[in-house]
Amino acid sequence: PDGTLAVAQQLQDIYGSERIVLKPRAKKLGLGTAYIHGMQYATGNFIIIMDADLSHHPKFIPQFIQRQKSRNFDVVSGTRYAGDGGVNGWDLKRKVISRGANFVTQTLLRPGASDLTGSFRLYKKQVLETLVKACTSKGYVFQMEMIIRARQRGFSIGEVPISFVDRVYGESKLGGNEIVQFVKGLLYLFATT
């Protein structure tokens, strides 16, 4: 709804369909199914997940690759809450919700990663396939479950501090329903891990 697809189509016209591959779906069907959809077309051994609206800046990708290579990590996650990571453009309410969600999750689940709700990540393709199959959550809590399941299965996780910049166009999908789903998901993970 924020026009990202139209911009991607323009980029495809410039750079060619062999470099910009678009596989749109008819409607929003959830993040997990989007990952599955995208994995069908991924040809490499690694997959980088990031927001297409550039809230996740591509300048961090070389750091993700370097971090992965440094210790052969299975997952490298961008973190807004360690090192010189941070957030720009969020109001106080959104910062409190994000920090609060991470704090409660850290307290209850002890995941060993500092930013559980972010989605800027590098995965070994086989690891991502395994994790997506293991996860049952939808929406906001899906990212958290991916890290929890990775730790549960003994996958190694590295982190790279990132600066997250709030989107200029469109709106956040974070609302009251997502917060309720997060709490339900958190309790489910607490009970099952």
TrEMBL record:
Residues 1-131 form the Glycosyltransferase 2-like domain. One of its GO terms (cellular component) is endoplasmic reticulum membrane. Its EC number is 2.4.1.83. Transmembrane segments: none annotated. CDD domains: DPM1_like. Keywords: Endoplasmic reticulum, Glycosyltransferase, Magnesium, Manganese, Metal-binding, Transferase. The keyword Manganese applies. Pathway: Protein modification; protein glycosylation. It catalyses: a di-trans,poly-cis-dolichyl phosphate + GDP-alpha-D-mannose = a di-trans,poly-cis-dolichyl beta-D-mannosyl phosphate + GDP. GO terms for molecular function: dolichyl-phosphate beta-D-mannosyltransferase activity; metal ion binding. Its main location: endoplasmic reticulum. Signal peptide: none annotated. Its cofactor is Mg(2+); Ca(2+); Mn(2+). One of its GO terms (biological process) is protein O-linked glycosylation via mannose. It is found in: Endoplasmic reticulum. The keyword Cell inner membrane does not apply. Pfam families: Glycos_transf_2. Transfers mannose from GDP-mannose to dolichol monophosphate to form dolichol phosphate mannose (Dol-P-Man) which is the mannosyl donor in pathways leading to N-glycosylation, glycosyl phosphatidylinositol membrane anchoring, and O-mannosylation of proteins. PANTHER family: DOLICHOL-PHOSPHATE MANNOSYLTRANSFERASE SUBUNIT 1. Component of the dolichol-phosphate mannose (DPM) synthase complex. This is Dolichol-phosphate mannosyltransferase subunit 1. It comes from Tigriopus californicus (Marine copepod).
